[in-house]
Design a protein that fits this description.
This protein is 55% helix and 0% strand. By secondary structure, the chain is mostly helical.
């Protein structure tokens, strides 16, 4: 039993004394690690204003019953959505994807 414990102890100590460079994988070598707030705000304002315009191309089919003349009814005309597509989801993607990461980055700063 003592040999087994010694081997186990040596294995645990060997693993715990390994390299700690694996923690550096989250550093972006191509971008700054610290950014001030005024550099985050303009793109956030831009996408908060632009996203509804992109989504309006598809949401208008629900709210105003737009149809394309001379074609059969699409999924939007039948109150559906384009499965596997980002059509009509730009606002959600910007708020919960792009802007959320900017807010997470800013909340870590004083």
């Amino acid at each position: 039993m003592n040999t087994r414990h010694a081997v186990l102890l040596a294995g645990v100590l060997g693993l715990s004394s390994g390299c700690s460079d694996f923690l550096d994988v989250n550093n972006n070598p191509n971008g700054p690690q610290s950014v001030t707030a005024y550099l985050y705000l303009p793109p956030m304002l831009h996408w908060m204003v632009t996203s509804p315009q992109f989504d309006g191309r598809f949401v208008g089919r629900y709210t105003q019953q737009w149809t394309l003349p001379g074609t059969s009814l699409s999924t939007w005309d039948r109150m559906g959505y384009d499965a596997g597509s980002d059509n009509g989801g730009r606002q959600w993607r910007d708020v919960h994807g792009s802007l959320r990461q900017n807010l997470v980055d800013r909340s870590d700063k004083p």
